[in-house]
Amino acid sequence: MNFSSRFPSLKQLAQVYSVVVVVVYGFSMVRFFWRVPSLINYSTSGQIGVILSYMLIVNLIESLMIVSAPVVLSVILPGKWFFDQFVTKGVLLVSLALGYAGYIASHINTEEPFPYPLFRWAPLVFILILALVFLLARVKFVAKFLEWASEQLEVFLVVSIPLTAIALIVVLVRNIF
Amino acid sequence: MSKISRRSFLKLVGAATPAILFPAVTSWAERNLNQGDASKPNVIVLLFDAMSARNLSVYGYPRPTSTNLERFADHATVYHSHYSGGNYTIPGTASLLTGTYPWTSRAINYSGGVVPGVAENNIFRAFGEDYHRLAFPQSMMANFIVSQFKADIDTFLPAGAFGKLDSLLSEYFPKDQNLALRALDDFMFKMDNKPASMVLGPVQWSLYYRDSARLPTEGYPRGLPHNVTYPLYFSLEDLFSGVASLIPTLPKPFFTYLHLYPPHAPYRASDRFDSKFIDGWWPEAKPVHRLSDGFSESKLTSARRSYDEYIASLDWEFGKLLDSWEDAGVFENSYVIITSDHGEIFERGEARHTTPLLYDPVVHIPLLISAPGQKTRRDIYAPTNAVDILPTLMQLTGKSIPAESEGKPLPGFGGVEDFERSTFTVEAKRNPAFAPLKQATVAMRKGNQKLIYYTGYGGKNSFEMYDLEKDLEELNDLYPARPAVAKRMREELLETLLAADKPYTK
């Protein structure tokens, strides 16, 4: 079996990854900017930059973990199942999965018990997500829209990749020297 | 692959020997050549977070909460009017470790820190390299302050040392612990807020909750002691036995700053003391303050009882620590200092310490110092403050006192009892650190008088004044009744505040 032939192209990968980046980085960024007014009360701009750097590194790890899911599915499943519609199915998969992760994250607080039921339902939810991915990908306008939208979102990579690279250097330098 | 010749082997051995031995030799040299003068006294600062002097029997509290502290007091100097620099851990700890008031260190906000100019004069640096300097900030907020001084600390024990469970990520970034703490443990993965990390946050939470639910809670009917806002579980037994075993292993002379989290909320008394103080005793009811949370008397009384029981549990373990240190002869060549960073209040509708109210339960903290070989008790009644600890220790160990220090050597240890001196406690957590203090409470103690100033809470700025010799419960506001004294104290407080704000006034 030739796995490498089912590995998505860089262009396809970038389209799916841009969706992940927008959601994952955006989620943290909103909270970061919500925090900035208090951070500037007691931190220098340099310290705030370092905090942002750590945040971006966590986001990088998260986004790479998430984007690896459609890549793995594309490689291990027969080409017709996933690879042939990598962008559509990949975007659907990561969007639905991140929606679920966001739903769990929004239900966490110390005032209430930890939402374990949301985790317990996870296997079923993922089966449902996979079913939705295969069903919705058949709808032509959905597929078209997702391909178009993910292409538009690629612009965020132009910002996120250099920023993350700088963040990586900042974190590495501070922890090596 | 060709065989290694005898000559090549010998070359390899010759080259490898210094490489193997060199680290061992240098580490031996570091251990022995840099070791300080063991005849110098050791210094142990043992700080209990959120321990109010007003709830300790050693200071006359009716419940027997601190029988072992009383035993310690038998061979110590007991300060009866000792005040914290702030009303929660950030300003309280910063005051102790820098010898400056919060309006100087600017450590006033939650998760805040000490400004660089002040941080350079921290207590660890002041002790110098001839002392082995160890810090154990078990409280996470103390970690914010102490990790700023990490370059001056020889051994930095993470908050999870002696704990049952922790999942602090900053521990994996020892070279950048302060900002990793702020970025990861206090922001991306903070436990008292929705996680800022969308994917790994919930995963970290679920693993931590799963593991904490599996922890044995034997001996703690209300659950294991833990930190609410950061992932950290511990038992008092483990904590104190860890501290007990730590001290004899340190290279002498040493300075240790042990900032223990209990009796900070949540109050988790051991089974020996749980429900022990259902004794029918009710403290004097006080009027609800306009800036309080408005808790009912029954809720306040219940919270106070839990707090007292937790203190008694802690004191029990402290007793064992005392025994072990006595057996090990620690008191023969060490200054042992017991104190706190701030108190806790259960009156006037308020049940916490992060409050704008600076009544004595929040700011009156214990201070007991046992000098090497001290056999008798001594009592000091003059007002003192946490900012006095640094200059006192510098004086006792023959070091120079940083010029920026706002404290004075304590009476009994090089200083004199000064009843005319003014000391301050500052609460300004909602105020930007690098701006004049617009929303703040400042308490000034001078002799028996205490003036409290509230500004920026809506309505007019207000003052209260109490005579603590005649009115320990702070029930009789003398501000309107003694205008001359009130005016003199008000002017001094406002002038001092104005001077502190000056660097931040445009």
Verbal overview:
The complex is a heterodimer of chains A (177) and B (506). With 177 residues, chain A is mostly helical. Chain A has one domain. Chain A has seven helices and no strands. In chain A, α1 (10-42) runs parallel beside α3 (86-106), α1 packs across α6 and α3 (86-106) packs across α6. The radius of gyration of chain A is 18 Å and the shape is globular. In chain A, 37% of the residues are buried. Chain B is an alpha/beta fold and 506 residues long. Chain B is built from 14 helices and 16 strands. Chain B has helices at 6-33, 67-73, 89-98, 102-105, 116-119, 123-127, 140-146, 177-188, 200-213, 236-246, 297-327, 360-363, 389-396, 483-501, and strands at residues 42-48, 77-79, 82-83, 132-137, 155-156, 165-166, 232-233, 254-260, 334-339, 367-370, 378-380, 384-385, 422-427, 440-446, 449-455, 462-467. In chain B, the strands form four sheets. Chain B has an eight-stranded mixed sheet. The longest helix of chain B has 31 residues, at 297-327. Chain B starts with 5 loop residues before the first helix and ends in a 5-residue tail after the last helix. Chains A and B meet through α1, α2, α3 and α7 of A and α8 and α9 of B.
How would you describe this structure in keywords?
heterodimer; A: 177 residues; mainly alpha; 7 helices; globular; B: 506 residues; alpha/beta; Alkaline Phosphatase, subunit A; eight-stranded mixed beta sheet; four-stranded antiparallel beta sheet; 14 helices; 16 strands; 32% helix; disordered N terminus
